[in-house]
């Protein structure tokens, strides 16, 4: 994901530099050229060039989507159920291992916790292991999102969505419900301890 981000950023830089130069030149120019009435060649060029650029962005993007969707033997399966306004988790590989995860109220927070991001029960997941995540909702639409992992999966009532990820370094990862599922959707934090 980081390499794809850098790849697209370089393409954007190569586009914005000449476009900025042309815009500044057009602003400073007096617009008195009699040869600017027709430009079949330039119109053809600026129609075909964006199509070629989109191919250079689409190929790595499609490859990345394919690689992210593959689930080879997952070490652990985690099931997340979105409720209003908390998450329920279940480690499917173990019997009777389920818990609810609520946001820590402001009056109970310590100085070491992040406001609106820390939960009373953290998800504990292994590092450098493929993890399968199954997401659903009990009431309305939710979205299980951890930006630092590049994971965002919608939780829809009556439907199981599946994704996979692997955590490459130890630490505490934070996320929130990123679906506008009601008044308190931003108070549904997700905390993973790796």
Automatic annotation (TrEMBL):
It holds the Pfam family COX2_TM. The keyword Cell cycle does not apply. GO terms for molecular function: copper ion binding; cytochrome-c oxidase activity; oxidoreductase activity. Its cofactor is Cu cation. Binds a copper A center. Residues 73-194 form the Cytochrome oxidase subunit II copper A binding domain. GO terms for cellular component: mitochondrial inner membrane. It catalyses: 4 Fe(II)-[cytochrome c] + O2 + 8 H(+)(in) = 4 Fe(III)-[cytochrome c] + 2 H2O + 4 H(+)(out). Residues 1-72 form the Cytochrome oxidase subunit II transmembrane region profile domain. Keywords: Copper, Electron transport, Magnesium, Membrane, Metal-binding, Mitochondrion, Mitochondrion inner membrane, Respiratory chain, Translocase, Transmembrane, Transmembrane helix, Transport. It is found in: Mitochondrion inner membrane. InterPro entries: CcO_II (IPR045187), CcO_II-like_C (IPR002429), CcO_II_C (IPR034210), Copper_CuA (IPR001505), Cupredoxin (IPR008972), Cyt_c_oxidase_su2 (IPR014222), Cyt_c_oxidase_su2_TM_dom (IPR011759), Cyt_c_oxidase_su2_TM_sf (IPR036257). GO terms for biological process: ATP synthesis coupled electron transport. It is a multi-pass membrane protein. It comes from the Eukaryota. The chain crosses the membrane at residues 6-27, 48-68. Its main location: mitochondrion. Component of the cytochrome c oxidase (complex IV, CIV), a multisubunit enzyme composed of a catalytic core of 3 subunits and several supernumerary subunits. The complex exists as a monomer or a dimer and forms supercomplexes (SCs) in the inner mitochondrial membrane with ubiquinol-cytochrome c oxidoreductase (cytochrome b-c1 complex, complex III, CIII). Belongs to the cytochrome c oxidase subunit 2 family. NCBIfam families: CoxB. Component of the cytochrome c oxidase, the last enzyme in the mitochondrial electron transport chain which drives oxidative phosphorylation. The respiratory chain contains 3 multisubunit complexes succinate dehydrogenase (complex II, CII), ubiquinol-cytochrome c oxidoreductase (cytochrome b-c1 complex, complex III, CIII) and cytochrome c oxidase (complex IV, CIV), that cooperate to transfer electrons derived from NADH and succinate to molecular oxygen, creating an electrochemical gradient over the inner membrane that drives transmembrane transport and the ATP synthase. This is Cytochrome c oxidase subunit 2. It comes from Coptotermes acinaciformis. The gene is COII.
């Amino acid at each position: 994901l980081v390499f794809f981000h850098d790849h697209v950023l370089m393409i954007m830089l190569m586009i914005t530099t000449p476009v900025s130069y042309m815009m500044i030149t057009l602003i400073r120019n007096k617009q008195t050229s009699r040869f600017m009435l027709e430009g079949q060649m330039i119109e053809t060029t600026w129609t075909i060039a964006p199509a070629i650029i989109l191919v250079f962005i689409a190929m790595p993007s499609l490859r990345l989507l394919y690689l992210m969707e593959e689930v080879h033997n997952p070490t652990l399966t985690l099931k997340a159920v979105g409720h209003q306004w908390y998450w329920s988790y279940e480690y499917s590989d173990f019997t009777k291992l389920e818990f609810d995860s609520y946001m820590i109220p402001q009056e109970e927070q310590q100085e070491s916790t992040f406001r609106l991001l820390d939960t009373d029960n953290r998800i504990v997941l292994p590092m450098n292991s493929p993890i399968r995540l199954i997401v659903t909702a009990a009431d309305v639409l939710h979205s299980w999102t951890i930006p630092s992992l590049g994971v965002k999966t919608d939780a829809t009532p009556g439907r199981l969505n599946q994704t996979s990820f692997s955590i490459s370094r130890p630490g505490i990862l934070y996320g929130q419900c990123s679906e506008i599922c009601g008044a308190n959707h931003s108070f549904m934090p997700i905390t993973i301890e790796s």
